Amino acid sequence: MTQNKTSSKLYSIIKSATATAVLPVLFIYIMIAKPDYKLMNGLAHIVLPVASWVGDVITWPVRIIGETAQNIRELSNLRTENEELRVRLDEALKNKNECEIAILENQKLAHELDVVQSQPRNTVIADIIHDDSALHHSTFFVNKGIKQGIEKGMAVTSTDGILVGIVTDVAPGFSRVRALTDSNSNIPVRIAGSEVYGFMQGNGSSLPTMGFFSDPEFQPSRGVKLVTSNISGVLPNGIYVGDMENEKEVNVTSPKKISRVIILQFDTQDEYK
Q1: CA–CA separation, 48 vs 212, rounded Å?
Q2: What percent of the chain has pLDDT over 70?
Q3: What does pTM read for this prediction?
Q4: Residue 258: which residues within 8 A CB-CB, separation 6 or more?
Q5: Which of 59, 119, 197, 250 is the most exposed place for a label (fewest CB within 10 A)?
């Protein structure tokens, strides 16, 4: 029973499609064999829409395939463009990083040049070539020595003008510097902007300690700035040393954090500005 119904429906569809396909043929036959314009005009309102629908049905697979192919081409083009843009973006980011690195290097060099120009004429720039820290001792070597006019007792600062040590030994091509954290380091300092004096003693740790102060009523606190004092005739006056971490300990610049230093070549009685 079900098979008969299916066959009947299929037969009806075939009849409808055949009739639809015959209509354009009949219309063409009337136009050629018996050109009745009134009849043709009436049929046109029926045949042309039907013919258009039949054409759409017949060409639908072709149009779908064409549109799909066009979409595939556009997608392929978009992927290609995206890959090209991604390559260009990577190159742009690389160039940006290189530019930023170059700018930072230029700023650093310019800063170091400004520091050198602001120092007294008799200064020598040196590179740290070896760190000889061990136990309670903290010393390092620089690549300048007797040939460059370096002598024992000269002050050594960072390129920012912060005291980092004192020259203790000199050879023709290199020198040894005792860092402020060395247990044998004991330098006279004063509170910046005052006449309160004291001594800063290295202890082998990263934070040297303060000894006595000349003013017993002075209460040291965090952030107080210390500069060198020439009361003992060992160092020039006024070199920035560091800040008080608390009432006893001082934050100083560690040689491990820098690679270049400035050696000051002038008499210890000269004022450092």
Answers
A1: 113
A2: 66
A3: 0.55
A4: 128, 158, 159, 164
A5: 59
